[in-house]
Design a protein that fits this description.
Length: 444
């Protein structure tokens, strides 16, 4: 039966820094296919590929392998680390005490974002960072009010008890990527860093600007992690029903399910790690990163609406279509949005940005309560009226100026459907004055 993976991208390859001698192969879908960690300098580039919905029948046994056959360092992380976080900043695993939750500092958040951009430019790890943020947030249960029991974006994914969930296979490598940034900016919470990384990855891949806010508070211990089983499968018997069951629990609707699925425009799936896809296609035989796997789209590191176009056509055997992809054009309600996004990229970008921002806030506790906005929208500046611009020639008034004139007109009683009332006394006096002037001129 398919293991659960929530909105991820397949074929993550592992970090370039030497890991402990034991190697672990990342899986494209909720599966750890081996119990060893692969040291590879070029492999990290292809971390840009893990499946958003994926599966493997060997996941659970592989997880046991991870626990039982690890080296002394891995054992130290996964066996003896009962109340500690994963630390991977030095290339080795270590354990540290969980810090008290602190609000994120806006200046450090902005600096961390620039470091993430540089990481994306050099490692091409967009999909795995998106997956990291989504898996931390995607455990949210709207039916539970208490924090952090309700799950959601609270940084709990940094603890090994949650990392060992089948759906999170390989995400330790995402932590490896961003831990140096966390070490550099101590006043950025894990919960914020995960969401900052995901949103930045979307934008840097050519996607829409996500209206994010920050200030998320971290959980402080592994006991606060959600139970396993809150994330979706890749190939359930009834894909549409399964997607609705999982995403409705988060408070998301059909439009948001389809929009979020569109992020499959990024990444590749590797069959040896996930059980899905081909070993190699004409689109994946060359980098970046380690070649191989099967992508959903031709340009699998570009965020656009091509995912919906290719899923609809199903004409290219070198492109991947999972059961949870195909159902978007089979279910009547999903199909309305999938058809729309295949034709209109602007509509897809708008809906995706809104859905991504909503997902990133699920279950979060903010300090300050209203959150921190790094890029507030600038207030529109009123246009200064210059008569000379409109005194000659035919010049169209700007919308802002039209609105200003309309407001002034309505302020003295006018409206589009009701002209201003006439001042009859003034009109009579003007007529008399004009007649007097004409009489005088004629008399002369």
């Amino acid at each position: 039966m398919a293991e659960r993976v929530f909105l991820t991208h397949p074929s993550l390859t592992l970090p370039s820094q030497p890991f402990p001698t034991t190697r672990m192969a990342s899986t494209a879908t909720a599966a750890i296919a081996a119990s060893r960690i692969i040291p590879s300098a070029t492999a990290l580039s292809s971390s840009a590929s893990r499946s958003f919905f994926s599966s493997s029948s060997t996941s659970r046994s592989s997880l046991k392998c991870l626990h039982l056959h690890s080296s002394s360092r891995i054992s130290h992380l996964f066996v003896n680390q009962r109340r500690a976080e994963v630390r991977v900043s030095s290339g080795d695993y270590a354990t540290v005490s969980s810090p008290k939750s602190l609000a994120s500092d806006p200046d450090q958040l902005k600096s961390a974002r620039e470091d993430i951009k540089e990481l994306l430019r050099t490692k091409f790890c967009h999909p795995i960072l998106i997956r990291l943020g989504w898996h931390d947030a995607g455990t949210y249960n709207k039916n539970i009010e208490e924090w952090p029991q309700r799950g959601g974006a609270n940084g709990s994914l940094r603890f090994e008890v949650e990392l060992k969930h089948a759906a999170n296979a390989g995400l330790v490598n995402a932590l490896k990527l961003i831990q140096p940034i966390k070490d550099k900016y101590a006043r950025v919470t894990y919960a914020d860093l995960f969401q900052l990384a995901g949103a930045t990855a979307v934008e840097e891949a050519g996607g829409p600007k996500i209206p994010m806010k920050y200030g998320r508070v971290d959980v402080s211990s592994p006991e606060q992690c959600p139970e396993e089983g809150r994330l979706p499968d890749a190939g359930p018997p009834s894909p549409a029903d399964h997607l609705r069951q999982v995403f409705y629990r988060m408070g998301l609707n059909d439009k948001e399910i389809v929009a979020l699925s569109g992020a499959h425009t990024l990444g590749r799936s590797r069959p040896e790690r996930s059980g899905w896809g081909k070993p190699e296609t004409k689109y994946t035989k060359d980098g970046p990163g380690a070649p191989g796997g099967q992508s959903w789209t031709v340009q699998w590191l570009k965020f656009d609406n091509s995912y919906f176009k290719y899923i609809k056509e199903k004409k290219d055997e070198d492109l991947l279509v999972l059961p949870t992809d195909a159902v978007l054009f089979e279910d009547p309600s999903f199909k309305v949005y999938a058809e729309k996004y295949a034709e209109d990229q602007v509509a897809f970008f708008n809906d995706y940005a809104e859905a991504h921002a909503k997902l990133s806030n699920l279950g979060a506790k903010f300090d300050p309560p209203e959150g921190i906005v790094l890029d507030p929208s600038p207030k529109p500046q009123a246009e200064k009226f210059e008569a000379a611009k409109y005194s000659t020639g035919k010049r169209e008034l700007s919308d802002a100026m039209k609105q200003k004139i309309r407001s002034e007109y309505e302020a003295i009683g006018g409206s589009p459907d009701k002209p201003l009332q006439s001042n009859y006394f003034l009109n009579i006096m003007i007529i008399i004055a004009v007649l007097a002037l004409l009489t005088s001129l004629l008399g002369n």
